[in-house]
């Protein structure tokens, strides 16, 4: 399970290499930095991962010192975003395309073999959250990408069994059901026919 410290550290480590990352053609970037003791290593830096960590951070109930840390890291992130605006938007558009393919592949895997893939949903759905966050950051999304995402959402709505929030309860307020509806349900191992 992730924590405030884990997400904060991921953003801080990402900001240290952000200029090189934004000016590269890569979507996944090596990341150094030490996660909190006992936590898993940080994944590779991605713009989607950075935006997701930001949303998670904003959702945590924070102590006063944590609020100060959060404010500092968000100011640093905003500075980088405004300084490298065009590179940021370009990276967001490219990242959206890559994440969309990954999300489509998962949905297709589920369609082909629901019993083998339904339990992956809690992990894989983070890609759908990243797509929402990247969409608001990227300038030039292609119409066919927007259409594909809409089609995938239509299918997901037809099979998703709505339920409680599927991530940690303490961050639920940052992911309201009317916006992040796909975080409030699970995929059944045997879906009804849409």
Structure report:
Helix content is 59%, strand content 2%. The chain has 8 helices and 2 strands; from the N terminus they run ααααααααββ. It has 194 residues and is an all-alpha fold. The two termini are 33 Å apart. It has 2 domains: 4-84, no CATH class; 88-186, no CATH class. Strands 1-2 form a two-stranded antiparallel ribbon. It has helices at 4-16, 18-22, 47-59, 64-83, 85-112, 114-117, 121-135, 143-159, and strands at 161-162, 185-186. Helix 1 (4-16) packs antiparallel against helix 3 (47-59) and helix 3 packs across helix 7.
Write the layout of secondary structure elements.
Elements: H1 4-16, H2 18-22, H3 47-59, H4 64-83, H5 85-112, H6 114-117, H7 121-135, H8 143-159, E1 161-162, E2 185-186
Antiparallel strand pairs: 1-2
Helix pairs in contact: 1-3, 1-4, 3-7, 5-7, 5-8
